[in-house]
């Protein structure tokens, strides 16, 4: 049976960040296992690639604290390791007086958080002639990142620190020993045997894995709801913008709306929309809103958008602890000594702003364990 100090289950941005962080500890060993053929093939590579500022969520929530801390760590990390990013900035745009009042309240919330924002009026709005808005809140610390390059750098960190990343490997069982956990893993090679790993610190994201360790209690406590979002690419020339454009979000912040983002090559895309689904593997683009319905949603703030300039892009799935129509639910980053599982760390419901928060989540995991 293989013995390691740290077993990280899941090789997305958060898992890789945790693996990178724990693998730095002198005299310890770390193993990151991933069921897919390479890192970051699910939520981490199917999102807007935005470095969020941390402006929407309650002040004392982990989503706010880890996003703000993570944003700072992420910009530093990108500078240090030459990971491509652009601090492009963002506008949240209001279309009427009630939405404008929301922006005023949001600006006060951001001031309380220490996150820089600025309310702008008609004169400044003219700097984005494609955008229609009654008012806007500018967020200058919002950026975009090459998420794959970022995860590639974290993956390189794990390996250069003397630790291991094993793809095509799925956990099948977890049991607690006296001072360690026994974890059975199976590779996707049908001829390979089930292997055992003995670990002092398992850190896991998938709720299926938490259910193996904590049984029905954890399955109910950490029940996930899956929100599929489709992204749409723009091929026209009428729309020109120099920053990200977001509508005002819904009241429970279930979705930030069908917003405009740009990629590192300057291409424009819209999304995600929102469809509640049962499976976290349903990436089918079929169904959902028609391209004309997408145009109608986007036309609220970009009246020049045309249906013929939109095409299907890709889908992502947000693993939410917040049910359809339910109120805000925070990230879960929990060391489970209180549940009789010392050293076991659950990472559940890490949706947006999980990519931005990833380095701060890793920092928190290390602090919880050590």
From TrEMBL:
<protein>
    <recommendedName>
        <fullName>L-2-hydroxyglutarate dehydrogenase, mitochondrial</fullName>
        <ecNumber>1.1.99.2</ecNumber>
    </recommendedName>
</protein>
<keyword id="KW-0285">Flavoprotein</keyword>
<feature type="domain" description="FAD dependent oxidoreductase">
    <location>
        <begin position="5"/>
        <end position="366"/>
    </location>
</feature>
<dbReference type="GO" id="GO:0047545">
    <property type="term" value="F:(S)-2-hydroxyglutarate dehydrogenase activity"/>
</dbReference>
<keyword id="KW-0274">FAD</keyword>
<dbReference type="InterPro" id="IPR036188">
    <property type="entry name" value="FAD/NAD-bd_sf"/>
</dbReference>
<dbReference type="InterPro" id="IPR006076">
    <property type="entry name" value="FAD-dep_OxRdtase"/>
</dbReference>
<keyword id="KW-0560">Oxidoreductase</keyword>
<comment type="similarity">
    <text>Belongs to the L2HGDH family.</text>
</comment>
<dbReference type="Pfam" id="PF01266">
    <property type="entry name" value="DAO"/>
</dbReference>
């Amino acid at each position: 049976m293989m013995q390691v100090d740290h077993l990280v289950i899941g090789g997305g941005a958060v898992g890789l960040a945790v693996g990178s962080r724990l693998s730095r500890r002198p005299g310890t060993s770390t193993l990151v296992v991933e069921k897919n053929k390479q890192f970051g093939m699910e939520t981490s590579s199917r999102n807007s690639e935005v470095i969020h500022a941390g402006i929407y969520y309650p002040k004392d929530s982990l989503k706010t604290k880890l996003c703000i801390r993570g944003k700072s760590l992420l910009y530093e990390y990108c500078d240090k390791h030459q990971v491509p990013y652009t601090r492009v900035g963002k506008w949240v745009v209001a279309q009427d007086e009630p939405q404008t009042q929301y922006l005023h309240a949001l600006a006060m919330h951001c001031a309380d958080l220490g996150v820089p924002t600025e309310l702008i009026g008609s004169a400044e709005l003219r700097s984005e002639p494609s955008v229609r808005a009654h008012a806007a809140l500018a967020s200058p610390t919002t950026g975009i990142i090459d998420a794959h390059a970022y995860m590639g750098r974290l993956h390189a960190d794990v390996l250069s620190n003397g630790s291991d990343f094993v793809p095509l490997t799925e956990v099948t069982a977890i049991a607690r020993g006296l001072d360690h956990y026994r974890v059975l893993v199976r590779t996707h090679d049908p001829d390979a045997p089930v292997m055992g790993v003995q670990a002092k610190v398992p850190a896991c994201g998938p709720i299926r894995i938490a259910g193996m360790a904590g049984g029905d209690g954890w399955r109910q406590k950490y029940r996930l709801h899956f929100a599929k979002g489709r992204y749409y690419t723009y091929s026209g020339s009428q729309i020109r913008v120099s920053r990200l454009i977001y509508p005002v979000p819904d009241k429970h912040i279930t979705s930030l709306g069908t917003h405009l983002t740009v990629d590192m090559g300057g291409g424009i895309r819209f999304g995600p929309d929102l469809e509640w689904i049962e499976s976290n593997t349903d990436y089918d683009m079929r169904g959902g809103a028609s391209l004309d319905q997408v145009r109608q949603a986007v036309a609220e703030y970009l009246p020049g958008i045309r249906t013929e300039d939109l095409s299907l892009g890709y889908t992502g799935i947000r693993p939410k602890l917040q049910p359809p129509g339910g109120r805000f639910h925070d990230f879960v980053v929990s060391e489970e000594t209180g549940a009789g599982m010392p050293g076991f760390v659950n990472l559940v419901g890490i949706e947006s702003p999980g990519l931005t928060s990833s380095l701060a989540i890793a920092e928190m995991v290390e602090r919880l364990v050590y």
